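Archive transcription. Copying these from loose printouts into the bound notebook so they stop getting lost. Printout 1 of 2:
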Amino acid sequence: MWVGLSSPVTTPYIPLYLGIKKVPDNYGKNSREKAFEIYRQLAAKYYAAPLKYRNTFPSIWESLENKIIREQNNMDQMAFRLYRIDKGQAKHFLTVNVATLADEGIDIAGELMESEE
């Protein structure tokens, strides 16, 4: 399931695979640096001055989302291979990869927030 945590314009879509052991830390409710809050702040900036950000959003997410789409088949195949050998390893593989993708989105959003201050 591809998940975006705020406005479709100002949030990347990250695939959360069935079988992950836990939701990425920044997507959880007890996170110190919640993804929802970061993306909500970006949405507030965008909607306060949409013309200012029209060249930034949603194109800022294209590189990350295109990378995910390009790598998805390989990730799916590797998870399937691991699943046939060891279900726990497959779940760990998916959990780590999903967390990495979620962190990449947070990093991009954080850099954008810093550059706009």
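Printout 2 of 2:
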Amino acid sequence: MNLKNSPDKNPRNADTSTIKSAMQELLNTYKIREKFTSTQIIASWERMMGEPIAKRTEKIYIKDKKLFVKLRSRALKQELSYS
């Protein structure tokens, strides 16, 4: 039996949702969207900034929707402040 062409065998119906919409609903329901976004940003730091900067990063956190980065290198701090 071919389910692809069967009109009454639709895999999506009113009771199903995409993973994306389910995740959005979950984050909204538990009011954890900001924490989730903060965690994603911090986890992506090395990928976004590159290994040399990540190795010189001591601490990263987000407070009041601002990113705080503690660096081990004064020269790097100066350079990033210009960027």
